[in-house]
């Protein structure tokens, strides 16, 4: 087996083959998703929420993401592992972006990086691409900008659809290997998907993008409580883990565990 390359994702688009992407932040899920045939794994800055327990993605740092990237890379053989550049690690310009991205490639062993933004971050994408670092872009709703976007809201409704399209075209022209489209109307996502040559990866962007991504804890039902509309739960890991935990606790209290079988 060898690693998936960005070029294969574009060839899949040309053949009309859709592909799945998931987040991963640890060795067990990374190995499992890799063996299940997920071609691209994202060590998202959503680790802020899903690993570190923050309310938003803003607080997580490069130093906090780095060991997670290393774990996911070590645990996979085939998946292309993308390191998400956190808030504050690339906005100053191409020089800062390059410094951060080089760390993720060198120390983290990542195969690509991702950053949020459209036309305004095109210079960063171009600089990284020129340096040999594949970059995934992320337009539409960009969680790192939630304070200026007015919270979790669909982007690109009505006339604003052209803004999303202009952002996607700009990042593709700057060299992005793929573009995440988050919370945009389906018709806008469809238009973007036909207008750019590289794959679009939807999350809350309807059925017509080239790929789909979800946060794994949402997909597998480990996270409970209010869920965005774009999430589909394919399992109830929270329920399964709660049941296992209660059974263990109960057996310890009753003395049913351990028995001679578990003892030396
Ligand atoms: O950090 C993340 O999980 C993401 C994906 C949802 C695209 O950016
Ligand atoms: Na992210």
Automatic annotation (TrEMBL):
It is found in: Cytoplasm. Coiled coil: none annotated. Binds 1 Mg(2+) ion per subunit. GO terms for molecular function: 3-methyl-2-oxobutanoate hydroxymethyltransferase activity; magnesium ion binding. Its cofactor is Mg(2+). One of its GO terms (cellular component) is cytoplasm. It catalyses: (6R)-5,10-methylene-5,6,7,8-tetrahydrofolate + 3-methyl-2-oxobutanoate + H2O = 2-dehydropantoate + (6S)-5,6,7,8-tetrahydrofolate. GO terms for biological process: pantothenate biosynthetic process. Mg(2+) binds at residues 45, 84, 116. Keywords: Cytoplasm, Magnesium, Metal-binding, Pantothenate biosynthesis, Transferase. Its EC number is 2.1.2.11. Pathway: Cofactor biosynthesis; (R)-pantothenate biosynthesis; (R)-pantoate from 3-methyl-2-oxobutanoate: step 1/2. It is an enzyme of class 2 (transferase). InterPro entries: Pantoate_hydroxy_MeTrfase, Pyrv/PenolPyrv_kinase-like_dom, Pyrv_kinase-like_dom_sf. The active site is at residue 182. Homodecamer; pentamer of dimers. Catalyzes the reversible reaction in which hydroxymethyl group from 5,10-methylenetetrahydrofolate is transferred onto alpha-ketoisovalerate to form ketopantoate. NCBIfam families: panB, PRK00311.1. PANTHER family: 3-METHYL-2-OXOBUTANOATE HYDROXYMETHYLTRANSFERASE. Belongs to the PanB family. This is 3-methyl-2-oxobutanoate hydroxymethyltransferase. It comes from Virgisporangium ochraceum.
């Amino acid at each position: 087996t060898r690693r998936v390359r960005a070029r294969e994702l574009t060839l899949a688009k040309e053949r009309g083959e859709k592909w799945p992407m998931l987040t991963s932040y640890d060795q067990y899920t990374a190995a499992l998703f890799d063996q299940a045939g997920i071609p691209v794994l994202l060590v998202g800055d959503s680790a802020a929420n899903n690993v570190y327990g923050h309310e938003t993605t803003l607080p997580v740092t490069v130093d906090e993401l780095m060991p997670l990237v290393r774990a996911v890379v070590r645990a996979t053989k085939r998946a292309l592992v993308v390191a998400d550049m956190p808030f504050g690690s690339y906005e100053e310009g191409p020089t800062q972006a390059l410094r951060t991205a080089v760390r993720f490639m060198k120390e983290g062993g990542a195969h690509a990086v991702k950053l949020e933004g459209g036309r305004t971050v095109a210079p960063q994408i171009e600089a990284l691409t020129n340096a040999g670092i594949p970059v995934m872009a992320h337009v539409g709703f960009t969680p790192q900008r939630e304070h200026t976007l007015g919270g979790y809201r669909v982007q690109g409704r009505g006339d604003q659809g052209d803004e999303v399209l202009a952002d996607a075209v700009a990042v593709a022209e700057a060299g992005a290997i793929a573009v995440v489209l988050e919370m945009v109307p389906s018709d806008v996502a469809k238009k973007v998907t036909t207008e750019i040559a590289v794959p679009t990866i939807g999350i809350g962007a309807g059925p017509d993008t080239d790929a789909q991504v979800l946060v794994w804890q949402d997909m597998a039902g480990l996270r409970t409580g209010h869920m965005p509309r774009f999430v589909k739960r394919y399992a109830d890991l929270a329920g399964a883990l709660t049941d296992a935990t209660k059974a263990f606790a109960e057996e310890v209290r009753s003395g049913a565990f351990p028995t001679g079988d578990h003892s030396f």
